[in-house]
Amino acid sequence: MNNDQIFRNRARVLDEDLTGRASTAGADALLARIVSLEPAPARRRRLMPAPRRALLGLAVAAALAGAIVVGPSLFGTSERVYASQAVTIDRVGDEYAFYFTEGDPDPAELKKAFHKVGLDNLTVKLIPVSPRQPGSVFGFEKSDPDAKATFTGDSCPERVEDCITAFSVTADIEGPAEVRLGRPAKPGEKYAFPADADWPGEALAGVNLQGRSAAEAARVVREHHLKVSYALDWPLRNGDQGWRVEEDVPVSRIDPGWQVARADTYNDGVIVLHVVPGPSATPPPGF
Amino acid sequence: MNEEDDRSRFEAIYRRTHEKILGYAVRRCSSPEDAADVVAETYVIAWRRIAELPDGDAGRLWLYGVARRVLANHRRGERRRLTRHTELTDEIEHLYAATSHQNEHQSEHAGVDEAMSTLSDADRELLALALWEGLDPGEIAQVLGCSRNAARIRLHRARKRFARALEQARPSARSASQPLVEKEAR
Questions:
Q1: Which is it for strands A78-83 and A136-142: parallel, antiparallel or unpaired?
Q2: pLDDT in tens, A117-135
């Protein structure tokens, strides 16, 4: 018996053992309940602007109906390995889970905590984001292709009292890695992650530019004594929903009649108009 | 596409993939309740994102990807029970009971289980996708969201680490483990 067969034999069931299971009473009942739920409307998928896309992802907070620790038999269990005033670290299977209890922790203390668990090359950076930002902003930059990080802030108060935000990373990270977590920007502070300009409290609060022509949107922005910059949202060429953003596009390449998809702000007096190129526009190389 | 079309399309995909997703969950969860939760939550997400759910075989791989993330959330203690699915849980309980005879000869498998438990979650999942779900590296790449080449290399490394773990757990398994690693390396 070769190793593949040895591994395969440890499957509790194989697909061929489940023939007919798609039309049992249980499968029918589940299907009926699911289609009675409201399907979510199709929405524009927001991809990061090109240079930052690899660095940051947007983790959207989700309401959890309950939290129970589930430990499939082959997976590891949770063990507390470090706790200080600012951070608590658990070992969970192949990962370390970090729970932050201070909004602006001392980098030296974090470094000490990471060193304790052998993650000498891991750093955490708190980046300013709009205080109106729904969900949490979380990013991970690493040199190790197999390293992974997951934002877990939604569940953190259930694990550690007074937990503000949390994430987990694979324990065997090699090389330097940086986790970035969003924190509310101070008044006047520039954002490191874009916010919708029409959110309440933002530069164009209540001003909807979506669907307007680029020329008209630019006029409205200037009326608010703000500067305009342009980005082009090129549809993904593989047929997937979403788009790839070309940043800092000169106005000479923007057709005044093209439509604005959204307006972003970094709280720096500039509104970034995301424009959808017309059907005859030719994307630049790589888009 | 209107809601009626969405329902018909979702039902067709559900019927076509249910056994696969059920198998995926049952093979990875230690309890019938967890497996039922993973199946239910995977399809709830699929229904809510019906516009993104691809047709054809890509839909099955997309669902594996969703199930994988749902399972990862369960492992982190995040459980979202979005539907009642007691009938399905009951049926899966019977499935677990029917297959419990595998554990009657636990001592025979102790070395294998020990070797499997020493693998990282990522390695175990790669091997499981290849050997339990029967996916090739291109399909694994779609589930994991990486390149085909990365999936192939990681699978090769996972096989190598499994062979090494088996050798350590069961020295007598050495002869059986060698050819497979060499074959994969070619």
A1: unpaired
A2: 888 888 888 888 888 877 6
